[in-house]
Amino acid sequence: MNMNQNKSKEIMLRSHACFPGGVNSPVRSFRSVGGTPIVFSHGKGKHLYDVDGNCFVDFCSSWGPLILGYSHPNVVSAIQEQAAKAITFGAPSELEVKLAEKIKQFIPQIDLLRFVNSGTEATMSAVRAARAATGKNKFVKFEGCYHGHADQFLVKAGSGLATLGNPSSAGVPEGTTQDTLTAIYNSEESIREIFAQYGNEIAAVIVEPVAANMGLILPKPNYLNFLRKVTKEHGAVLIFDEVMTGFRLAKGGCAEVFGVEPDLWTFGKIIGGGLPAAAYGGKKEIMSHIAPLGRAYQAGTLSGNPLAMAAGLAMLNEIEKINIFNLLEEKGKLLDKIVQQHLGNLIEKNKLCYTRIGSFFCFFFGTNQLPQNFEDVAKTEMSTFNKVYHAWLENGIYLGPSGYEVGFLSACIEEEDMTKLVEVIIEVVKH
């Protein structure tokens, strides 16, 4: 399609007078892929529509939460019904309890949890809880894994920081990150070295059990079991950051998929039904350190706000009702088949790699081996991704604007959409 962007360009020009870089989150700026960001107006099912009237099949799902597609009637109805009653209380509501009970039903290993408003709040609070419970200060994160924009996490982070080429962030004092230890994802040696030196000082290891902020990197077989073993040996808390994977990969999350139970979980995206909401939770002996039970303070005026709770509850009820994980796995296997049929020749010629788990998928260009860590991803051809990305847009396909992000399947995506996604790659890469 010949994509008209006149209105998007005019709105983005105005936005630069309002926001840093014209955006409210860096990856939206198109800095990585080039060109003008698309300004959207509405969405329905698998389709996104921009202010210029262009229509896109959406493989971004607002970075994951819209697993049912845009404007699902049950979620919209729940929001509308609650909005007519009250938008916020800043006080307890039964909706908080109902959503928490649903989450605990999905993952019974969670004893206690606390709702917050963003994934960043969830991860920083989980680390605080781990520190309070262990009396230790240091924690381990992995290079290329993104846990939000709290100061302590902005060390060799993924997602937008990887896109912008920033190994860290200005405005973060050295003292804030002196207790942040960075390991190499999928490397047992890296973890052993860190624990050999700092084992008695480490409060926690936080990890994306499936890394999805440096492209899609799956844990090596038994790697999560290895992390579980090491943390137990040293009295450290194992935190699974499932802000992206939670309730998208499986009903029980990555603990179910890989058979490894962490001490704490963090969730976001889906549990708010697309509205701002997140949570952290896990073992009672750790969560009991959170105020008012304990001395680890964490609060939020709008935490557990009724709109987000209503949307999240409707979302979880719906995905349970339709058994969405089987549905998405079937779609994923179909995508695997389409990729092999159409891209097999390019894969054999070492021009790209493809990987998928559940409803997450990713293409890496200019490599013959699937990346295992952030260093491997950085060696792939992002310039080729950028060309493919703009070809996708021209052909009415939308994904997140960075080769360090992943694609998402939703319940609405159909075979013809996946075929088109793949055919565009052929047209760009074969030349």
Question: What is the fourth-level CATH superfamily of the largest domain?
Answer: Type I PLP-dependent aspartate aminotransferase-like (Major domain)
Spans where pLDDT lies below 50 across 5 or more residues: 157-167
Which whole number gives the mean pLDDT? 93
For the record, what CATH class of the largest domain applies? Alpha Beta
- Look at the helices and sheets and give the structural class: alpha/beta
> What portion of residues belong to β-strands?
5-15%
Task: Using the 3D structure, state the CATH architecture of the largest domain.
Answer: 3-Layer(aba) Sandwich
Number of domains: 2
Estimated helix fraction: 25-40%
What order do the strands of the largest sheet run in, or round the barrel if closed? Answer: 4-10-9-8-7-5-6
Output the radius of gyration. Answer: 21 Å
Main sheet record:
7 strands, mixed
Q: Which fold name corresponds to the CATH topology of the largest domain?
A: Aspartate Aminotransferase, domain 2
Q: Give me the number of helical elements.
A: 15
The strand count comes to 14
Distance between the termini: 20 Å
- Along the chain, the helix and strand elements come as HEEEHHEHEHHEHEHEHEEHHHEEHHEEH
From the spread of the alpha carbons, the general shape counts as globular
